[in-house]
Q: What sequence folds into this?
């Protein structure tokens, strides 16, 4: 066969195979096959001794040129595969210069924060923290607090009644407590004197919501019973609380109020943080926001709990928690707390 044609066929075959190669391992196989000692090219070169001298020169030059061409193609292929591998590893690699993903850390709800802070202040004043049930008997929610059936004060706290709840030996009915005050009666009934407690917890009222009213809200009840407790102790304790919670500049107002379970009774208001006392939508244009009812425990309530009202006296208060941080931070609508809006909640 014509050696030149043989050489040309080998060259074409080698370049075609090289072109199809995608991986380094195939390159090595290709090198052995087309450029190694046992390659077709090497064999042709070895057979050149049988070729007449004048032809040998041109074939030698052709085969050298072909060898050089294959070598150049091989180098180019090796580079191409290297580039491919580099690009692939860059795709899989972690870019350590990228900024990390922000992990939003949850935090305590502002109402829970307020409960913890307020209870902490009262603990510092010698009060113990106890908790009661949200589902309560009407006996403790009303009767034991001097609010018998048919008493008009029951109407001021629109009640969620539980279906079917009753105690066989009594005519007690079950409800969602409308305030934390039932824990006054329960504690006085079961705890040795002296008593100093605060009771945080949820309460429920069947009423329309607005900027300062919710149907489910939180109260902290306070109760102190001992010999010789006076209204001055009540005022001193609550003034101290307002000073510690809001700072010394906020004004506190005590005004006579009526609650059947205290006598005398009062309402505590703090000057509005939104308008600075000028009057606005939040404070109903009064400049004040009422945060708590309070008073001296009514002698009948002490007696119903088995405490001698001629020897012992006590004070009680019931703080509305949602309104307390409202005043501190200038929150305009109490409904924001439970709207689930994270833009609001993340601020606290
Ligand atoms: C009571 O619930 C009495 N148990 C408080 C009390 C305790 C008086 C001990 C005397 C002795 P009142 O209904 O006013 O009282 O509620 C107390 C506080 O809860 C209010 O001052 C107010 O801050 C808050 N509050 C009342 N209703 C709502 C409501 N719908 N939404 C949010 N907060 C409320």
A:
């Amino acid at each position: 066969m014509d050696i030149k044609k043989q050489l040309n066929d080998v060259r074409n075959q080698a370049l075609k195979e090289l072109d199809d190669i995608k991986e380094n391992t195939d390159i090595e196989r290709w090198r052995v096959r087309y450029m190694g000692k046992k390659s077709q090219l090497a064999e042709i070169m070895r057979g050149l001794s049988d070729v007449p001298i004048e032809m040998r020169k041109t074939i030698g030059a052709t085969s050298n040129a072909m060898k050089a061409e294959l070598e150049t193609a091989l180098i180019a292929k090796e580079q191409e595969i290297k580039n491919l591998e580099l690009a692939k590893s860059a795709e899989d690699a972690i870019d350590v210069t990228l900024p990390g993903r922000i992990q939003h850390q949850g935090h305590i709800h502002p109402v829970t924060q307020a409960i913890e802070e307020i209870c902490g202040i009262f603990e510092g004043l010698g009060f113990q923290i106890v908790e009661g049930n949200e589902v309560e008997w009407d006996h403790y929610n009303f009767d034991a607090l001097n609010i018998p059936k048919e008493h008009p004060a029951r109407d001021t706290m629109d009640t969620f009644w539980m279906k079917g709840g009753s105690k066989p030996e009594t005519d007690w009915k079950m409800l969602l407590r409308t305030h934390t005050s039932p824990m006054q009666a329960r504690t006085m009934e079961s705890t040795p004197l002296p008593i100093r407690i605060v009771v945080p917890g949820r309460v429920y009222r069947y009423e329309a919501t607005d900027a300062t009213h919710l149907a489910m809200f939180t109260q902290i009840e306070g109760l102190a019973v001992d010999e010789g407790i006076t209204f001055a102790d009540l005022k001193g304790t609550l003034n101290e609380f307002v000073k510690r919670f809001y700072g010394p500049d906020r004004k506190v107002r005590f005004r006579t109020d009526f609650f059947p379970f205290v006598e005398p009774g009062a309402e505590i208001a703090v000057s509005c943080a939104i308008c600075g006392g000028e009057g606005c939508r939040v404070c109903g244009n009064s400049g004040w926001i009422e945060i708590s009812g309070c008073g001296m425990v009514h002698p009948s309530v002490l007696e119903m709990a088995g405490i001698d009202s001629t020897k012992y006296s006590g004070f009680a208060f019931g703080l509305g928690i949602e309104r307390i941080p409202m005043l501190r931070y200038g929150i305009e609508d109490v409904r924001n707390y439970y709207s689930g809006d994270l833009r609001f909640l993340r601020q606290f």
Observations:
- The longest helix spans residues 53-92.
- The mean pLDDT is 89.
- The chain has two domains: 3-92, 111-345.
- The CA atoms of residues 146 and 260 lie 6 Å apart.
